[in-house]
Each structure stands twice: as structure tokens, then as C-alpha cells.
């Protein structure tokens, strides 16, 4: 559990420090550092800025964090399952902190015209990909070999 806590804190620090820097140094005008653009924006909705009631987002995120905490503590997750859950947890917590303290999520990374995002979004996406890859491909492959 110590290793998991360290990883969560490390990922959360990367996310929160980058968001603080974005609020301090970036504007709504793009700063280009090929192939990236840095453009400050505040997302009050969910993914891709889809409108959603802020209070409900906080409640849903707290429920998800509670479920993920329970899974990390009570479930006997295999190594890659745990990695996926830790990344999802870290990203959800990072965006929750923004919603509670700023009323919106700070987004600032733009790549090739894709909607603007942040490190927490990267952690969530990576966690889902890792978890699904393990559940749908690795476990299936291992069961076929057995």
C-alpha cells in the first residue's frame, strides 16, 4: 500500500503543479511548443466540455473514488489491474480538487487540434487503457494458454 500511496501522490503532484503553472503563465492565447500548444481554459463540464451540473460531478467523482479505494484495499488486484486503478484514481482526484477549489477543471494541453486537456485526463485515459488491456487481452490470452 505504501508504493500505491507514493504513486498516487507523485501523479497528483505532477497534475496539480502543472495546473498551478498553467493558471499563472498561460492565457487563452496559445503558446506553441511543437507539436504541443499550451492554452489555458476552465472546463466546468465533463469530457470534451460537455455541460453537466457541477454538484453532481463532485458527488459522482466521490462515489468513483470510494469504489476505487475499496478496490485497492479489499480486492486482490493483479499488478496491471492495480496500475490502471491507481492512474484512474489519481486523475479523478486531481480533477476533483480543481472542481472543489476553483469550480472548474484547469485544462491547458492541446495536441493537433484535439480538445484541450490536462495531466489528470491523461492519467484517467491511461488507467482505463491499461485496465482494459489487461482485462480483455492479457487475462484472455493467459486463460487460453492454461
Strand-pairing-aware structural class: alpha+beta
Total count of helical runs of at least 4 residues? 4
Main β-sheet, in a few words? Answer: 3 strands, antiparallel
Tell me the strand percentage band.
5-15%
Measured between the Cα atoms of the first and last residue, the distance is: 30 Å
One letter per element, helices H and strands E, the order comes to HEEHHEH
The overall strand count is 3
**Helix fraction bin:** 55-70%
**Morphology call:** globular
Average pLDDT over all residues: 91
Identify low-pLDDT runs: none
Question: Taking Cα atoms only, what radius of gyration do you get, to the nearest Å?
Answer: 17 Å
- What is the total number of structural domains? 1
* Order of adjacent strands in the largest pleated sheet: 1-2-3
Amino acid at each position: 500500500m505504501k508504493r500505491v500511496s507514493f504513486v498516487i501522490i507523485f501523479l497528483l503532484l505532477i497534475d496539480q503543479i502543472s495546473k498551478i503553472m498553467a493558471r499563472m503563465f498561460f492565457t487563452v492565447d496559445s503558446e506553441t511548443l511543437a507539436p504541443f500548444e499550451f492554452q489555458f481554459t476552465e472546463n466546468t463540464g465533463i469530457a470534451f466540455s460537455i455541460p453537466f451540473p457541477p454538484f453532481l460531478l463532485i458527488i459522482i467523482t466521490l462515489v468513483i473514488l470510494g469504489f476505487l479505494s475499496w478496490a485497492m484495499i479489499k480486492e486482490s488486484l493483479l499488478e496491471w489491474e492495480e496500475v490502471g486503478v491507481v492512474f484512474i484514481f489519481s486523475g479523478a482526484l486531481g480533477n476533483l480538487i480543481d472542481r472543489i477549489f476553483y469550480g472548474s477543471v484547469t485544462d491547458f494541453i492541446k495536441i493537433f487540434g484535439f480538445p484541450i486537456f490536462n495531466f489528470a485526463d491523461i492519467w484517467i485515459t491511461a488507467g482505463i487503457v491499461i485496465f482494459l488491456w489487461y482485462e480483455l487481452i492479457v487475462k484472455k490470452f493467459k486463460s487460453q494458454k492454461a
